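Predicting holo structure, iron/sulfur cluster bound.
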Amino acid sequence: MLVHICCSVDSHFFLEKLREDFPQEKFTGFFYDPNIHPYSEYRLRYLDVERSCKKLGIELIEGEYDYENWIEAVRGLEKEPEKGKRCEVCFDKRFLVSAKKAQELGEKSFTTTLLVSPLKSQQQLKAAGEEFEKQTGIKFVAVDYRSGGGTQDQSRVTKEQQLYRQDYCGCIFGLTMQREQQNKLMDEMFSPICGSTLPASIEERLALYTKRMELEEKNIPYKIVRHKFLNYRQLFFRLRKGKNEIIPAFALAYSTLPRKKAQGRIEYEIDGLYHFNREEIRFLSLERFNALAGTSYASVLELIYDPPSFSIQQQIRNILVDEIYDLSPIIVTDISSISDAKLNIELDAKTYEDTKEKLIIL
Ligand code: SF4
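Done. Tokens:
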């Protein structure tokens, strides 16, 4: 039986149940989910499915990530709510490709782990499965592992196996709507030009879940714990001298400006920290920054394109202002070029409550 797999949270429990119900059957997992966006999230979900199938001793095949085709298939349905028409097309596409794969492999039946997800309409899935059974002759196995306490059992398995729990269905459209309803920043879509890994980003999770695979291979006990923290994303930052001259400058993580703009000039200097006359903004030179961070950036541009981690930036902030909850803008730039000038600062940044995972070696 070919089993289309959407994520490890659904597949681990589903495959365990299938094995109980079909003890003579040989199962092959098929991860075909070009709906998942961004690609880093796709890789993360695949990584966890790979681990889960390995644990269960089930062969896994990765389908093509044909995102452009998927986008084309749902064109015009972008604003549909979850469980609406876009989801029908999304299931159809994944079903069709899975059924074709089953045919290609000479399988007699196929099913999907989507059937166990509490967020999906079983009716919709069954209708799509039966339609393809008619078209292809391959039996669609519509099991119900949700009722009779199934959802609670699934949740227990998820915790026991420490599976990666994503918090959105998969596509960019569902994600956009969900974040709008939650009034939450869509930080999954941030990808800084410098390529650095932001706190609680998909890239950070990908590194964490890759590391845990390595620990498991070496039989090193670990635990993944979650904790709440204040997260930060910088959307836009620019320093101008007068109206037109842009000065290369880097705003440290957790720099915020409630009105997003400030105009003024440097008023005084204490211990190499230059204080602006508005909004508690401070400047420091690249030399001072290098000395504090233990770095050797040759220019501010170099710093912009390859900044140190958030935690190092926070350590520098703490040294400079001696206050762990400080959110004042701290800007690294060439002080000599701005010391007597009228300056325009534009900074759009968000701080928000967030949750992140931590890997603890026991
Ligand atoms: S919300 Fe989920 S099921 Fe619906 S279209 Fe997006 S990825 Fe597919």
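DSSP finds eleven helices and 14 strands in the chain.
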